[in-house]
Amino acid sequence: MSEKLDKLSRGPGVTKSEIVAKAVAAFIDRRGETELDQRYGKRLDRISRDLERARRDIEMILESLALFIRFTITLNAHTPVPDKATQAVAEARFQNFVEQVGRQIAGGKHAFGERGEP
After folding, report:
1. Could you give phi then psi for residue 109, rounded to 5 degrees?
2. How many whole angstroms separate alpha carbon 21 and alpha carbon 19?
3. Which pLDDT tens digit goes with each residue over 9-52?
4. Smallest Cα–Cα separation from 23: which of 51, 1, 45, 38?
């Protein structure tokens, strides 16, 4: 250890006491962190950022959906009750929509770009 300290202190303007003082300070600083922080801190920070982005995206989707529903209800407020044939057509269209969404997800296709884009 002494030989390594001698090698490090050979540089211009570097003293052994400075090296030792910095090493002790770094050691003390690291002791303030737990082993878990050192191992997983960066990963947990990244996961936290990803969760925050997902939360933001979900809030936007929910707000968009709520506005769309309100708009649709307002638009259709005075529409007469549909007959059986119209209800059957609507049910078929809805089933088609659900199947298409399933195919898009299963095929890895996304209407608004690649998954993971901000």
Report:
1. -90, 145
2. 5
3. 777 777 878 888 888 887 777 776 677 777 888 899 999 999 99
4. 1
Q: How many angstroms separate the Cα of 97 from the Cα of each of 90, 94, 104?
A: 10, 5, 11
Q: Look up the pTM and report it.
A: 0.49
Alpha helices in 1-118 (DSSP H): 2-8, 16-32, 35-75, 84-106
Which two three-digit tokens encode residue 89? 């057509």
Calpha distance 18→9 (Å, rounded): 9
Q: Which amino acid is at 8?
A: L
Task: Give the domain ranges of the chain.
Answer: 2-81, 82-109
